[in-house]
From TrEMBL:
<dbReference type="InterPro" id="IPR023271">
    <property type="entry name" value="Aquaporin-like"/>
</dbReference>
<protein>
    <submittedName>
        <fullName>Formate/nitrite transporter</fullName>
    </submittedName>
</protein>
<keyword id="KW-0812">Transmembrane</keyword>
<feature type="transmembrane region" description="Helical">
    <location>
        <begin position="102"/>
        <end position="125"/>
    </location>
</feature>
<feature type="transmembrane region" description="Helical">
    <location>
        <begin position="164"/>
        <end position="184"/>
    </location>
</feature>
<dbReference type="GO" id="GO:0005886">
    <property type="term" value="C:plasma membrane"/>
</dbReference>
<comment type="similarity">
    <text>Belongs to the FNT transporter (TC 1.A.16) family.</text>
</comment>
<feature type="transmembrane region" description="Helical">
    <location>
        <begin position="29"/>
        <end position="51"/>
    </location>
</feature>
<feature type="transmembrane region" description="Helical">
    <location>
        <begin position="241"/>
        <end position="260"/>
    </location>
</feature>
<keyword id="KW-0472">Membrane</keyword>
<keyword id="KW-1133">Transmembrane helix</keyword>
<feature type="transmembrane region" description="Helical">
    <location>
        <begin position="196"/>
        <end position="221"/>
    </location>
</feature>
<dbReference type="InterPro" id="IPR000292">
    <property type="entry name" value="For/NO2_transpt"/>
</dbReference>
<dbReference type="GO" id="GO:0015499">
    <property type="term" value="F:formate transmembrane transporter activity"/>
</dbReference>
<feature type="transmembrane region" description="Helical">
    <location>
        <begin position="57"/>
        <end position="90"/>
    </location>
</feature>
<dbReference type="Pfam" id="PF01226">
    <property type="entry name" value="Form_Nir_trans"/>
</dbReference>
Length: 275
C-alpha cells in the first residue's frame, strides 16, 4: 500500500530536518532560489486566472500546482524548514544544533527572496511590455494586493498587526500540513492530492505566506504601487515570517513530533494489551 502511517512519516520528518540542516551552502541556496521562483510564478498564475475569470476560487484551486512542483523537485521553502529543521534539533541529531538551524533558515530566506524577486522582475517586464506601458488589469490587481496588505494593516493599527500575525500563523499551519501530508503516500499522485488540500485552504482564505509575499509586494512596488519597501518589510514581511515560524513549528511540527515520534505509553490495562 502507498499509505504511510503518522508514526512512520513522523520519523521521516526528523530525518528530513537533519538532512536540510546539514546540506551544503551551495545546494541550500540553489534549492531555495528555485523554490521561491516557482512559488512566485504560481502566485502570478493564480492572480492572472482570478482577474481573467473574475472568480478567485478558480485561481485558488490552481495555485497549488506551484507548491506541488517545487516539492516534487526537492526544493525548499522557508515555511517548510521552519517546521522540519527544529525537530532534528529537538532529537539531538549529530551536527544539528541551534547554529545549524539558524544557518539553514538564513540561507533559505536569502534563496527564496532572490528567486521570488527574479520572478517579480520577469513578470513586471511581461505586464508592462518591458517597462514601456502602464500595468494592465493583472498588474493593477497586484498593485492593489500589495497596498491593501501593507498600508491596510498599518491603518488598522494594533488590530491590523494582530490580524496579520494570526493570518501568518494559520498560513503555515496549512502550508506545513501540506509538506507533511506529502509524506503520507509513496506515490506521486498520492503526494499531490495530499498537498493540494491544505494549500488550497491557505490561498483561498487569504492567509499570509512569507515567500508568496516576497513576490506580491516587490512586484507591486516595481509596478508603481503606493507603498514603500519600508511598508512592505515592517507591515508585512517581518511579522509574516515570525507568524509562519510559530504556525509551522507549533501546530504541525511540535504536535506530530510529540504525539507520534515521542508517543506516550498507552493507558490500556496490560491484560487487554496482551490480548
Amino acid at each position: 500500500m502507498s499509505y504511510v502511517t503518522p508514526a512512520e512519516f513522523s520519523a521521516q520528518m526528523v530525518d528530513a530536518g537533519a538532512k536540510k540542516a546539514l546540506m551544503s551552502t551551495k545546494d541550500t541556496l540553489i534549492r531555495a532560489y528555485m523554490a521561491g521562483a516557482i512559488l512566485a510564478l504560481a502566485a502570478a498564475f493564480a492572480v492572472t486566472i482570478s482577474v481573467q475569470t473574475g472568480h478567485f476560487i478558480i485561481g485558488a484551486l490552481l495555485f497549488p500546482v506551484g507548491f506541488c512542483t517545487l516539492y516534487l523537485l526537492g526544493y525548499d521553502l522557508l515555511t517548510g524548514v521552519f517546521t522540519l529543521v527544529p525537530l532534528a534539533v529537538f532529537d539531538k541529531r549529530p551536527g544539528v544544533d541551534a547554529k545549524a538551524m539558524w544557518r539553514n533558515w538564513g540561507l533559505v530566506f536569502v534563496g527564496n527572496f532572490a528567486g521570488a524577486m527574479t520572478t517579480a522582475i520577469f513578470i513586471t517586464i511581461t505586464l508592462t511590455m518591458g517597462f514601456t506601458q502602464e500595468p494592465n488589469a493583472i498588474g493593477q490587481a497586484l498593485m492593489n494586493i500589495g497596498h491593501n496588505r501593507t498600508v491596510g494593516y498599518a491603518d488598522a493599527g494594533a488590530g491590523g498587526m494582530l490580524t496579520l500575525f494570526v493570518r501568518a500563523v494559520m498560513c503555515n499551519w496549512m502550508v506545513s500540513t501540506g509538506v507533511v501530508a506529502a509524506m503520507v503516500s509513496t506515490s506521486t499522485s498520492g503526494k499531490i492530492m495530499a498537498m493540494w488540500m491544505p494549500i488550497l485552504i491557505f490561498f483561498y482564505m487569504g492567509f499570509e505566506h512569507s515567500i508568496v509575499n516576497m513576490f506580491l509586494f516587490p512586484i507591486g512596488i516595481l509596478l508603481g504601487a503606493d507603498f514603500t519597501w519600508g511598508d512592505y518589510l515592517l507591515y508585512n514581511e517581518i511579522p509574516t515570517v515570525v507568524g509562519n515560524l510559530v504556525g509551522g513549528l507549533t501546530f504541525v511540527g511540535a504536535m506530530l513530533y510529540s504525539t507520534y515520534y515521542k508517543t506516550s505509553p498507552s493507558r490500556e490495562p496490560k491484560s487487554v494489551a496482551a490480548e
